[in-house]
Specification:
DNA-binding; two-stranded antiparallel sheet; 124 residues; alpha+beta; three-stranded mixed beta sheet; 23% strand; 5 helices; 2 domains; Dna Ligase, domain 1
DNA sequence: ACTAAAATGAGAATAGTTATCAACTTTAGG
DNA sequence: CCTAAAGTTGATAACTATTCTCATTTTAGT
């Protein structure tokens, strides 16, 4: 993977983002500072960054993928009402991967763990 | 939800299926016995059955959704090589939802828990 | 600076799924 | 058992998210 200005911008934008944005959301943000950036470039780079373990692609949330600059082991929660995505600490299930591996005998390389329901704020 | 012959056929076909099929796979199977069934009818009914908790839609596996007639609490593993989907018992993380709920204070209505890696067979 | 490999932007193409709509079924009430 | 309202169907158009193509530009090593 060579250096590329666009990839740097994309990664920085994702890092500065508190939410877990979709490509569409990122594209809107990126275009403000870099009107010439192409959607294909964005997708290409998000995929490359994810393949290299620099970011994480989160599937299973909605019809579109979300992206996370936090690659530490943790889970996600999406509110069915406001669609906001929250982090859940991996502490709620220590050794989950290890145990799953022991039970199945499979080599587990990754996981997508997504909860959904109603967040505190929407519950009021 | 009224009775419909097509829905019954779709549900039965899913129940008889040991794998966790995609809509495409189900459609191919269904057409053999019911050549006139429409793809739209299949998707409509899978969504309705899932909304009513009769089946479960599994997202986060591949670009397309898979469907599961087993609605008991359990997780999934997809082999990155052969793309087969396996069940993992929820016993590997007892009270996972309860703990996540305690930690976050959110009302958790469901979860999608997907592991991926290499299955026993492909590991040989 | 020169070259090969990698990356870009623009837009076309693809895949999976949902929407539309006229015709047909199902259901509940009289 | 008839009817009207509500629900469902098949066919196909439309949509959305993402990937592909390709000519041009950028990067990295010599």
């Amino acid at each position: 993977m060579n250096y590329s200005r666009q990839r740097e911008i994309i990664l920085n934008t994702l890092k500065q983002n508190v939410v877990h944005p979709t490509a569409e959301y990122l594209y809107d943000v990126l275009k403000k500072e870099n009107p010439s950036i192409s959607l294909a470039t964005l997708y290409r780079n998000l995929n490359q960054l994810a393949e290299n373990g620099i970011i994480k692609k989160i599937d299973g949330l909605e019809s579109s993928s979300h992206y996370d600059h936090n690659t530490h082991d943790h889970y996600h929660f999406i509110c069915d009402k406001c669609k906001k995505v929250f982090d859940i600490s991996a502490d709620v299930a220590p050794d989950l991967v290890k145990k799953a591996q022991e039970e199945t005998g499979f080599t587990i390389m990754g996981s997508d763990i997504v909860f959904h329901g109603i967040c505190k704020n929407c519950n009021k």
